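> agent: user asked for a holo structure of the chain below bound to zinc ion. Plan: (1) validate sequence alphabet, (2) canonicalize SMILES, (3) run complex prediction with ligand conditioning, (4) return tokens. Step 1... ok. Step 2... ok. Step 3 dispatched.
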Amino acid sequence: MILHNATLPDGSRHDIALKDGRIAAFHPASSAQPGIVVLPALVDGHIHLDKTLLGLPWIPNQAAGNRVADRIEAERKVRAARTVPEAQTGANLVRQVMASGTLHMRSHVDIDNQLKLRNLHEILKVREQFRDLVTIQIVAFPQSGILRSPGTAELLDAAIAEGADLLGGLDPVGIDGDLDGHLGAIFAIAERRGVGVDIHLHDGGEGGIAQLEAIARRTAAAGLQGKVAVSHAFALGSVPIEMAARTADLLAGSGVAIMSHGPGGAAIPPLKLLREHGVEVFGGSDNIRDAWSPFGNGDMLERAMMIGYRANFRHDEELAFAFDMVTAAAARVLGVEPYGIAVGTPADLVVVEAGSLAEAVATRPRRKLVIKAGRIIARDGVLVP
Ligand SMILES: [Zn+2]
């Protein structure tokens, strides 16, 4: 297969030859006219495949208030009324994101002392079902806390033994009220099992910063540099810039990455400042049509636009940064290797009609082609049978 007259994210233009599932060669562009933009496979650094209600009749959001705890409670009600297994709705979401060009993702999966490992088993089925098409990394996520849901630490450990890839966490202070107890439980398992960590941290202000500092210190002490991420980290966007910069230095020095989805209702971390200080910054969808959010569709090009919109990005380089968060940066955090558009890498590509990468981010055009290992798996936004 040859992709003619393809503009790459860096603006260069080539005819790209694909062979045996890989990128075989770049030839001079056969036409001077702009045609298509060819992107690397999109990467969703934070999704919840077990929570989505995608494909079910509309279920109104039932959260009684605006706190994390209110949403956890509302989700219990929705889950109790659920008649369709999570493997089915999770598969609905995987099909939808594949059609939009996402071929790698990190999914958090709820674990607590009521659910036990049920959701993990459901999403392991989804991972198996799509194993030839997408990579799904699984985070064992203590959605109800660890200390306030006794038995959860043992379940998290069992989840890793059964196939989860990383340990999750949730607001050590805001939910569990015990910074050292919560982090101690997570890092003990992570160290023993030799796996990474990805912690949801909504707690804002200086209290949130103190938790980021503690995570950075434990990461360095455990030798887990480069394997730890904090998702959301709203605190970084809610304190004076000098404090955010100091914290950024600590995060960078400890190899802790930050995930942002371009939040609508909270302070967004200062993404450019973080990157300037050496922090790996990546993107994800977070909630998609679930008990937490009625919104979302898993389209990572649209997510790059939303991140840029929330971060007040305007220049092409800024849009390229937002795009990097949902491609190369997320791939590095997930350990997807080899990745990118180069001779010899897997031909996992997304083709859109646009004149440049920045235009593609701004307009989020329909995906003309999604290519997995040299084979077309979706055309015009629809999976091929
Ligand atoms: Zn999340």
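> agent: step 4 complete. Summary for user: Residues 46, 48, 108, 200, 231, 286 surround zinc ion (CB under 6 Å). The first helix runs from residue 68 to 80.
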